[in-house]
Amino acid sequence: MNNLKKIKRIIESLLNIFATVSLALIITSCTRPNVVTVDGKNSEQNAPPPPPAPAPQPEPGPTPTPVPTPTPTPGLCGPTNNSCLSGTLEDTEDTLEKYQWNCNGTNGGGNVSCQADKVVSKNCVQIFYDSSTDPNFKFLGRTYGLMLSNLLAHFPEHQQIIGPIDAYKSGDLDKCHATFYIGANYDKPLPQSFKDDYATTTKAVVWMGYNFWQLGQTFEDTFGYSVNNGDYQFTTLSTTQTTPTGEPGFFRDILYKGEVFDKYGKWKDSSKKTFYAAFEMTNLLRKTADKSTVLAQARHSTTGEIIPWAYKAGNKYFVTEIPFGFIHESDRYFVFADLLFDFLDAQPKHDAKMALIRLEDIHCEVELNYLDEAVKILKRNGITPHINIIPIFKDPTPNPDIVIRMENKGSFARLIRQYKSEGTVFIWHGVTHQYNEMINPFTGISGDDYEFWNYPNSSPIAEDSPQYVVTRLNDGFNSLKKFSIYPKLWVPPHYRASALDSIIFGGVFKWNIGRSVYSDYTISGQQPPADNVTFDSNSSDLQSNQNTYVSALTVKEVPGFMPFGQLYPYELYGDMYGQLLAPENLGNVQPELNDQVVATRSVDRILADAKRNLVLRDVWASVFYHPFLLDPALNPENANNPPIKDLERLVKGIKNLGYNFINMDQYSDANSTLRGPPRVDLDSSN
């Protein structure tokens, strides 16, 4: 392949992955010191005069209070990474094999340098990805690796090791239960030791994407498909064979367990000059029968031709593409997510198909009649209402700004207290769900805009710091506490925040819910998991505990890394930000396009996706709904289908498919302790 084609292929891969984002959709309290007044005059006494003094003495003043001499405390290392038995913590740069930190003594006590081995569990899984020396494509392989790492967080029993294939050492394939290789950069030279070990290992190896041809005869001996020149090809878009709607043909449908998952394919705009699709796969020529088993197939959208999409041969697997581009609610990505159970020889964590619905963007200025109607629909269908609540409403567009706390809007406050007494679950959804007085980027009004992310600048907000985040959250918490709401659950506004903020959210909330957008980052000063820092507490020391928890935290986003978005079919026990994350995989009812969405979503489409997903293990049916859509003027379905409103049809349909709506508060209580061990990162730059 010439260089021009190679560059074109990499650019297409970049478009694939980064389009996912659009589709996925402290100030410390001060205390005045105590002041003690001491009478400086001695009382008169009837006594003989003292002997003459050699010189006049000043009038005695107050007796000074003795100042104790500080006791020097030397630093003393703790047994685990970033822990000190005494002294103050200072994080230092880790090596590939060891964690490193200092425990600095106080009051003149000595400092000590500490180390701990990066302990690798015997039950581990490795992710190796291609790296590139070309700065334009430097992060491509790592991005895919991090997306896979997030998916693997559903299996916390496996410690993760992640790094570039250049860090591979002879024998590494036999070190862990399973290894993934992500061939993201075309013709990236692979270490000979890796290719040699691939031929002999008895452990599971999953190969994704390019560079399989470097295995030569080993690949054919394993799978029965030839890698000789001309015996394999990469699928393309067909401009001559098009669909009835005029779209280019490609291998779009993925056939799996009797269901059809489909790849994204759409024109960029009305000019129809650019078509976005993850169209490329490897099509192999079979040479030896019965060497491998096909796990899933791909079907062409115009010719109907069917070819293998994923193979298994003994302990080896081959996936003909990297399925992380253009992820959407019915995507082949979910097939890959389900195949992880086979790759890891893992059992499902729950037999039940769980469902969750959230009433979205609820603040004190919403129309209460539609909110109450939505709550009643859920209750009469035996579903515990879950409300995404915003405690402070702000509209900066008038002069002066409108700011209303939920406790100060009587009608709203009465309804929330009623819901609380009836067992409604409240999910915290931002403090104001907007940012200062700026348009960020829609209206500046609560419920519309980003709060912890500067969207126009594509950057963290200017004030971003651990202290800012903790203080802002506690300001909102002061309102929630007045309703005895101690939230266990959090959804960041528009699922977006900085890496720093998201790491903090992962520590101060039991569970996060939704999708997420990720940036690669470096971290230092991270404290071990702390007690009494989560918001499901009424402790008067909560903010102080949180300040201590994040006091040494420093997070830096990696320059040049383009953020990516991701959604999940199942729960994660610690994504790359450390969040316990319950999924939102079905989107929301969206009858019309607007500035905040990229596609419409009907009840029928959501139910079709939920039905298809029934073949997946541990899958959820998780969706959200805006109660204002019960207004027939905003949602034609509620005018055309009385008395069954679209919300009722949605939840009845999900229940009829066999999903069980859960109480997420109860779920979080029962599932908040299961987390995977720390990930070992072989990339020395992270």
Give your account of this protein's structure:
The protein has 686 residues and is an alpha/beta fold. 22% of the residues lie in helices and 23% in strands. It has 15 helices and 37 strands. The strands form eleven sheets. Strands 15-14-19-20-21-9-8-6-7-37 form a ten-stranded mixed beta sheet, with helices on one face. Helix 4 links the parallel strand 8 (178-183) and strand 9. The longest helix is centred in the first third of the chain and has 16 residues, at 3-18. The two termini are 33 Å apart. The model is unreliable at 1-63 (pLDDT under 50).
Quick take:
The protein has 686 residues and is of the alpha/beta class.
The share of residues in extended strands comes to 15-25%
Biggest sheet, spatial arrangement of strands: 15-14-19-20-21-9-8-6-7-37
Helix segment tally: 15
Average predicted confidence as pLDDT:
89
Features:
globular; 37 strands; 10-stranded mixed sheet; 686 residues; disordered N terminus; 5-stranded parallel sheet
Write the layout of secondary structure elements.
Layout: H1 3-18, H2 20-23, E1 76-77, E2 84-86, E3 88-91, E4 98-104, E5 112-117, E6 124-129, H3 140-152, E7 159-164, E8 178-183, H4 192-200, E9 204-209, H5 217-223, E10 225-226, E11 232-234, E12 238-242, E13 248-249, E14 251-256, E15 259-262, E16 265-267, E17 275-277, E18 282-286, E19 293-300, E20 306-313, E21 316-319, H6 333-344, E22 354-362, H7 368-380, E23 386-389, E24 392-395, E25 402-405, H8 410-421, E26 425-428, H9 466-481, E27 489-490, H10 499-508, E28 511-513, E29 516-518, E30 521-524, H11 542-550, E31 554-557, E32 564-566, E33 572-573, E34 580-582, H12 603-612, E35 620-625, H13 637-640, H14 646-656, E36 660-661, H15 664-670, E37 680-681
Parallel strand pairs: 6-7, 6-8, 7-37, 8-9, 9-21, 22-23, 22-35, 22-36, 23-26, 27-28, 28-34
Antiparallel strand pairs: 1-2, 3-4, 4-5, 10-18, 11-18, 12-13, 14-15, 14-19, 16-17, 19-20, 20-21, 24-25, 29-32, 30-31, 33-34
